[in-house]
Amino acid sequence: xxxxxxxxxxxxxxxxxxxxxxxxxxxxxxxxxxxxxxxxxxxxxxxxxxxxxxxxxxxxxxxxxxxxxxxxxxxxxxxxxxxxxxxxxxxxxxxxxxxxxxxxxxxxxxxxxxxxxxxxxxxxxxxxxxxxxxxxxxxxxxxxxxxxxxxxxxxxxxxxxxxxxxxxxxxxxxxxxxxxxxxxxxxxxxxxxxxxxxxxxxxxxxxxxxxxxxxxxxxxxxxxxxxxxxxxxxxxxxxxxxxxxxxxxxxxxxxxxxxxxxxxxxxxxxxxxxxxxxxxxxxxxxxxxxxxxxxxxxxxxxxxxxxxxxxxxxxxxxxxxxxxxxxxxxxxxxxxxxxxxxxxxxxxxxxxxxxxxxxxxxxxxxxxxxxxxxxxxxxxxxxxxxxxxxxxxxxxxxxxxxxxxxxxxxxxxxxxxxxxxxxxxxxxxxxxxxxxxxxxxxxxxxxxxxxxxxxxxxxxxxxxx
Length: 465
Prior knowledge:
single chain; mainly alpha
C-alpha cells in the first residue's frame, strides 16, 4: 500500500517494511522488556537481542537511504558517543581494566541492540495514525507493544497474588513465583521495578490524554484499561514502599491531569469534573498512605540542612560505620535523606573537578571518592544523572541527551508521543535513582535509538506491505 506524504523542502524516500517483519520486531521487543529485569534470563535476553538486531539490520538495509537524511543525526550522535567512550578508554582512563570490562559488556550490548532499536523505530513509524483506535493489523502491533511494557508490572502483581493464595491454602511455590529477599538470586531490586514499571504508567497517562475529544465505540474500555494500568503501577510502588516510584508517578499523573484540563477547557462538563476529582482523590490517597508508611518524608528538609554541612559533618563517607548526626528536630537523620543529599552535593563537586569523567558507568563515584578519601566507603551518588556524568563526562552526557532531544523533535506523530512519555519517565527517575549501571543504560540507549528510528520514518513516504 503506497501513501504519499505532503511534499516538503527535504527529500522523501519510500519506506518498505513487511508486516511479518514489523510484528516480529515488536514481539521481540515486548518479550525483551518483559524479562529484562527477571533473574536467570540472560540467555533469552541475548537471543532476543540477536533476533531483533538481525531483523532490524534487514529493515535498515532495505531503507538505507534514510540514514542519508538530516533526520538520522541522533543516530550519528550516538556513534560519536561511542567514539568518545573509546577515546576515553585509551587516553583518559583511571581504571583501565574495569573500564575495558564495561566497554566489552555494557557498550557492546548497546551496539549489539542498536540495529534492533533503529529497525523497530522505522517499522513502527507506519502505524503512527492508528495506535489503539481501529481493529486492524496496526492495532495488533500496538497492543503487543503495550503488553510488553506493562508485563513487568503484571508479573510483579501475579507473584503477589500467588503468594497470597499460597499463604491461604498452605501451598509451596518455586522461587520464580515469589518475591525473594536480597540474599536470593531471584531477588528483583526496587530500582529495577521503578525503571521498568514507571514507563507503563507514563504511556497509560499519554493514552488517557489521547482519549480526550476522541470518538470511539471502545472509549470506556480503553479508559478503564489505561486507568487500571496507572493503578496497577501505583500498587507495585506502594507495596515496595519506594519513594522514587510514588513521587515520579504523582508528577506524571499531575502532568496528565493538567494537559487534560487544558484540552477540555472549552468543553468542561460535570463528567470531566467527577473524573478529575476521583483521579485527584485516588492520587492523594496513595500519597497519604505512602507518607504515613514512610516517616522519612516528614524530616526531609531538616535532614538536607545537615547534609549541606559536608566538611563539618562527614558521616556521608562511611555508610553509617561511624554513626549518623542529629537534625534540628533532635532526631537522628533519615539515612536515605541525609546520604542522598550529601552524595549529590559531593558528586557535583567531583564533576567540576573532573569534567571529562572518571570513565566508569558503574561506581565512578566510589572509585574517585576512594582516590580522594582513602578511608571512605562510597559507592554510588544515587542519582543516575550525576553518576553517569561523573562516569562518561560532560561531553558523553551531552551527546546522549542531545541525541534524545533531537530524536524526540523528529518523531512528531503518535509514536513520538509514546517515546516522549517513556523517556520523560526515565529522565525523571534517573534524577534520584541509582540506575547508572548495566541493564538500565542499555535500555536508555535502546529507547533513544528507537525514537531516532521513529524520526526517520515520520519525514518520509510510506510503503508498508
